[in-house]
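dumping this here before i forget
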Amino acid sequence: MTIREKQEQWERDYLSSYASLSCNSLGRDEEEPQCDIRTVYQRDRDRILHSKAFRRLKHKTQVFLEPEGDHYRTRLTHTLEVAQNARTIARALRLNEDLTEAIALGHDLGHTPFGHAGERTLNELSSRGFHHNEQSIRVVERLEKKGKGLNLTREVRDGILNHQTKSTPATLEGQIVRLSDKIAYVNHDIDDAIRANILKEEDLPRQYTDVLGHSVRSRINTMIHDIILNSENKSDICMSEEVGGAVMGLRQFMYKSVYTNKVAKAEEGKAQKLIAELFHTYMEHIELLPEEYIHMVEHDSEDKEQVVCDYIAGMTDRFAIHSFQQIYVPHAWSNE
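structure:
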């Protein structure tokens, strides 16, 4: 019996009857020989972790554009916090921790530079629309590994695609990530807003903090405990009505106080104009794209708008700025 087979047996013996067992995976679009050490979900996690798209997350905005300081969250640190929250819940509920982690690590791979400002801009400009969860799927199915994709299992791709609140993942592990995403961004965005002197702890509405807690640490603790207590031995992942309502109320408060705050979003208009200029330029001058993207349009019959969105969405904040400067900012001339 291989190490992988022993792990699969452990899952059958120990995990909840509601867990997604590795041996029961719906598989990959392209069949592959099994690894003798890792289960299918462990392999998916590793493929995402080693992808270029994952590494680029460290230079993509979460909420604050180009913040002065090293302790503000980026899209990468957000992803890691989601993964940690999700793993804690999955382990407590005896669900598949490897599947949960793979979904969590991959859920934001398709996010644009400059956070949701970049996403909104591409969505407005492209006749096809643009949504980061759908782009994350395109990253793992089409764009990574020079067009080969990562060939992930269907369960991981389903969780990535459906990680937003309005969707329902097919697995409980995916449902955990969907709630863990919300837990992470509500709490770390409060923490970053306090660090930026946009908020103070006492500014948070008491009707919500009296339920959830009066510090970031206590609120995360309350939310995770509530999910575990309300989901144990059930075919659903959920919060209690009281805690879930408080989370939604705090989220709405954050939209009014931080996500649309003039200080936090002072540079957002510039970022949106930058993205728009890049989009229009690449649409008119496709020859400015890297060769592999030109090939997608001219030889693979990919839609030009989609390919331009692919390229821009894959940029980090600083690479988007650099690309704009290369096109629009004059360079010193020298014949030496």
